[in-house]
Amino acid sequence: MLRNLLGLSLLALTSVPSPALADAPLQLPEIGDPASQAVSPQQEQELGEAFYRRLRQTVEFVDDPEIVNYLRGLGNHLAASSSEPERGFTFFIVKENSINAFAAPGGYIGAHSGLILAAQRESELAAVMAHEIAHVTQRHLARAYDSASRMNLPTAAAILASILIASQNSEAGQAALMSVQAGSIQRQINFTRSNEKEADRIGMQTLRDADFDPAGMPDFFDRLQQQSRYYGTPPPFLSTHPVTSDRISDAMSRIDQMAKEAPVQESLNFYLVRAKLRAASLEPQEAVNYFQKMDDDRVPAAARDYGLAQAYIGAGQTERALPLLRRLHEADPDRIAFRIALAEALSRQGETGRALKTYEAALALYPGNPVISHYYAQALVHAGEHQQAYDLLSRQLRQQPQTTDPELYRLLAKAASGLDRPAEAYEAMGEYYYRNGQTHAAIEQYELALQQKPEDFYASSRLEARLARLKREALAEREQD
Question: Is this structure's pTM higher than 0.85?
């Protein structure tokens, strides 16, 4: 039976049969055992990065910069209030309608898009993220790290990714696993109820310290449990994080002790992001109908109008979106989401000049904002303003050298190409492919970059060094296959 090498989110996966490995002996250290410290922070980070790249090859991500930046901001805010505020985390979204979240080595924490849509208020979404953070900070993944340290990096990363896939599609997960498990030892890792209760307790404390409502955790878990009884099939979150009445009662008993004196103010940005994600998750006309008929007093009116405007944009009805967005922007001129949506609608309407001025004004108001910079650079590239786009993207990537947003590199490649800088264009495309997990395609782009014979010695040396590293990684991947 294949269980969870990945960790907390996949505790009760659909089993993937592996007869050849079924009887493999298990020699795993206890949680807290000194052996669990054998994996260095650097090894853990390398494994997490390799897992993340492998995952990008096999599942679809939500790459909308506005939505992703929101989740990262939420996650980092929670992490800053956790028991290890100095620890680095990477938060991302998998495009999957089911309700689930998971964590992997190196502090990589993913949420399904369905989780964001299912949360009725920000404290509920924050509760799940705080729970995942607690699993990481409390070293509940220690045995997974130890198991993975006995394999080569590509093999370990591929198995972690295949287990996650299996939680969504058992046949696809089994096929992915069988393609990478030759020569590997299957390791069976189960997390105990005490792990889950501890993650609840620590997560609720993190919620309170981060100024969220700790009741968001038992409220969300209880609602999911009630829905599963009604529909008969529990969401993946309940399968991978078994929620019992005991756990909900334990969480509720802490609420009175932890409740804040003043009521928690839920962020409007949560409702805006959820509306944008909902509009993107439906067919265009279906999204328009959804928001036109929406009558939910729990959702702020501004979020309902914003969702309808996003639906209109998606359906190609920008003339109907513009009045809504202008009204929203006038009522709340400092809201970045309204400025970006207004600029996008203007661009779709063919008013390129006004769209660029809207982005420019927004960036002047919020210098260095990664979301505005992304959309502005995209609009500049589409408008043929390659030098401006190149300068903006280069500055953004210098400020975020470890960005997990591959699209920035693709835009940089287009800008460099428009400026007749082929070596830089190929290099940027190489990074785009690499960050999408496509090492061989990245190698091809770097080889093309070197064929341009860059005049700058430093540039040539940098390209050669990067190419050599990519080839070593590709060789390790071939050996794993």
Answer: no
